[in-house]
Design the sequence.
């Protein structure tokens, strides 16, 4: 797709904060046709042309649950009968919570405790939920990085 700036055929990408560039060589698919792995070549970033895109990567992945919260109400003033004639309960946003059950984060957060805070680069700020337990961390997004103040 024109303008797509991620790992794709003929489009090398930099691995953010590593000094390396990878380029796709082969896509390995399983019996069902699903992608199982990618074979890439790797070079130092200073050994060739600078890539047009950089991607995030996790060297030691840890699976966790991420809860992405959005606005609870659809209107700015949900109690205003002129704006929401059916009352504030009729104005609830059905998409106010999205749960990502198998997200990958870096292993460095493995010992995080409830209410510890992290910035996940380009995504927002997250806090460890008290629902977390040994081996299963749960993160709640508390603030997004791209908030449009004019957006309701």
Sequence:
């Amino acid at each position: 797709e024109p303008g797509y700036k991620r790992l794709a055929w003929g489009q090398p990408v930099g691995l953010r904060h590593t000094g390396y560039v990878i380029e796709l060589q082969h896509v390995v698919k399983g019996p069902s046709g699903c992608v199982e792995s990618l074979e890439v070549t790797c070079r130092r970033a200073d050994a060739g042309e600078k890539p047009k895109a950089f991607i995030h990567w996790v060297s030691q992945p840890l699976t966790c649950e991420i809860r992405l919260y959005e606005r609870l109400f659809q209107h700015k003033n949900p109690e205003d009968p002129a704006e929401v004639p059916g009352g504030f309960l009729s104005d609830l946003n059905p998409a106010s919570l999205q749960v990502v059950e198998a997200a990958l984060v870096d292993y460095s957060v493995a010992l995080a405790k409830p209410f510890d805070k992290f910035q996940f680069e380009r995504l927002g700020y997250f806090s460890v939920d008290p629902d977390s337990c040994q081996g299963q961390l749960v993160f709640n997004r508390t603030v997004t990085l791209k908030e449009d103040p004019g957006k309701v």
The first strand starts at residue 13 and ends at 15. The mean pLDDT is 90.
